[in-house]
Design goal:
By secondary structure, the protein is mainly α. The protein is built from eleven helices and no strands.
Length: 284
Amino acid sequence: MFSLDQVGTVAQQLEGSLWSALKELAWPALVFGALATLTKGRGVFLWTRRRIGETRINLWLYFVDRVLTGPLMGIVLAALTGAISGLGLTLTGSDPWAALGFWATLATAILVGDFSDYWTHRLMHGRRLWPIHAVHHSDTEVNWLTQSRIHPINRLITQSCSICLLSVVGFPLWALAVGGFLRYCYSLLVHADVPWTFGLLGGIFVSPAMHRWHHARDVSGAGSNFGFVFAVFDRAFGTYYLPGPCGVALGVNEPLGRSAAAMLLHPFRKMLVPLMRAPASREG
């Protein structure tokens, strides 16, 4: 049995994790709250009210991820990085990146990380992995906080692939950390509820309008735009779709439930129940 001291230590750790998660949420809330006010004016209040239900789910999933699953994933990802280094699987050492310099190394790390995310994202839209990724697409009121509506398994798959590729290429740890943080910040921007297409730059960088078409329901754009930072990958592999600002319905048609708990259980219901039914049908 646990002693009172052990319970108290766990409680303090959870409290610290919760406080850290609140602080991490504060700066994007201020930035994107100001952006919504500037772009929507007095309509921002109606816009906020309409999103209360979806926002509640996003916040629950955000805190579950930051407080519970995030630390566990950190351990797994650190183990992957250590295994790759220990087994000598890196293709380059640190010398080429040191010669390249800070900014060029960082830019390359972001590019390679986004390349990994592009292909992982395409795989998540496949039949087998879609029940996991559907959680992210279930938000009908996409905005910056939709970035937090992601199933832990989805995040583990995506980050594991990215970390493995970046580690094998031999990027230093600082490039993995800084590049990952900047890709996260950019992902918040492309989920923002603004009609920006970025004009000519929209052919190079993913814009909020471009990614919004990816979240569209029952239109051709929903099967496109898998990149998060660079639009060049979608252009190169034939998945680019940006006819202009997106004003169509968002979300998915399949029912996933209306709570964070239902979202977390959805992939298991969709993927495990058929496996359990198969033996029963053979016996029948």
